[in-house]
Write a structure and sequence with these properties.
D-Maltodextrin-Binding Protein, domain 2, 2 domains
């Protein structure tokens, strides 16, 4: 994806879109006063609400530089000490771990962040923090599967699901993090044994994104699929008749409710090591834990709040409450390489 820059002035309108190459010394001067340079791989249409709201509260304008996570990390590294980047935002703890390993983040001391964000949703070194969460759930065709037939991720490797499972490729970070969590919980031998059975139950070779899996389940190509919770919420909220029809044909199931709980992941970020506007960067991260910002995450992109006590959106609430796995999401990154090797060994394309 092309890296672009947008300036948010709190008016609800992007005032400029230019190539990131145009960022220069003038912006560094602004950043040190009333501009925050935000490098983000979150490509959600409602996120500008967050930035505009932050500007209205603080007077700090937001320069949004968008791109894929890996591209932005490389950009920050290549810019070195002259990087204008103040905050790096991305999806999945695995990507945040990579940013940590690349050395582009700095530790943050904030009583607000530490008190608002549960310990399992932030870096043990306070290098990054989760601001919203998503559950990796089972989607099932209501005409083919009863909820009583579903139980755990582990059960999906049994013969009863032969030729019935839909999921995206092993290149996807969400799936890599799910496998990494299983390695942490079950150990490598048991997880590899599980993965062999799981892959043998695929209804087709992995293809498409999570929305594609939901649509394929609704169409009967497979009986069940593994997706992030917000994808179904999007379809349920859609104004398109086709999307609503798909959502009506499928149900959502939270695995492992009688045990450790459902696998969850985060979207989050941290302060860049060379941030010219460190003070503003910390203010921005703290703002993301506010009830207002947490509501925007939930209502806008159908993500679950990470701050305890903040209610989820009505569409998420319609899915019901669930028990979440309390594993520290940092292990998703720590075990990412091992997860990828395991997925390769078992033939998960």
């Amino acid at each position: 994806m092309k890296i672009t820059r947008r300036l948010f002035l709190g008016t609800g309108t992007a005032m400029a879109t230019v190539a990131i190459a145009e960022l220069g010394k003038s912006n560094r001067g602004l950043a040190q006063s009333k501009v925050l340079n935000l490098y983000s791989s979150r490509h959600y249409d409602t996120d500008p609400l967050l930035y505009n709201s932050f500007t209205k509260k603080t007077g700090i304008k937001v320069n949004l530089i968008e791109g894929e996570g890996g591209e932005l990390m490389e950009r920050i590294k290549s810019e070195g000490a002259n990087s204008p980047a103040d905050v790096f935002l991305t999806v999945d703890a695995g990507n945040l771990w990579r940013a940590q390993q690349e050395g582009i983040l700095q530790p943050v001391s904030s009583s607000i962040l530490n008190s608002q964000i549960p310990a399992n949703f932030r870096s043990p070194q306070n290098l990054w923090f989760g601001f919203s969460k998503r559950a990796r759930v089972i989607i099932y065709n209501k005409n083919k599967v009863k909820p009583s037939q579903l139980s755990t991720y582990e059960d999906l490797a049994t013969d009863k699901w032969k030729g019935k499972i839909l999921i995206r490729s092993s290149n996807n970070i969400y799936n890599q993090s799910l496998v990494a969590s299983l390695i942490e919980i079950l150990g490598m031998p048991k997880t590899e044994s599980w993965a062999k059975g799981f892959v043998s139950n695929f209804a087709r070779p992995p293809e498409g994104n999570d929305t594609a899996q939901i649509k394929a389940v609704a169409a009967g190509i497979g009986d069940i699929g593994i997706v992030n919770s917000y994808y179904l919420a999007r379809l349920k909220k859609s104004t398109k008749a086709g999307d609503k029809a798909v959502a009506e044909k499928v149900g959502m199931f939270f695995p492992n409710q009688n045990g450790r709980g459902t696998h969850v992941n985060i979207s989050g970020g941290g302060v860049v090591k060379t941030a010219p506007n460190k003070e503003g960067a910390i203010k921005f991260l703290e703002y993301l834990t506010s009830p207002e910002a947490q509501k925007i995450f939930s209502e806008g992109n159908n993500e679950y709040p990470v701050v305890p006590g903040v209610p989820a959106s009505s569409v998420l609430a319609s899915f019901g409450d669930f028990k979440a796995d309390s594993t520290n999401v940092a292990v998703y990154g720590k075990l990412n390489a091992e997860a990828i090797k395991l997925m390769d060994r078992v033939g998960w394309k």
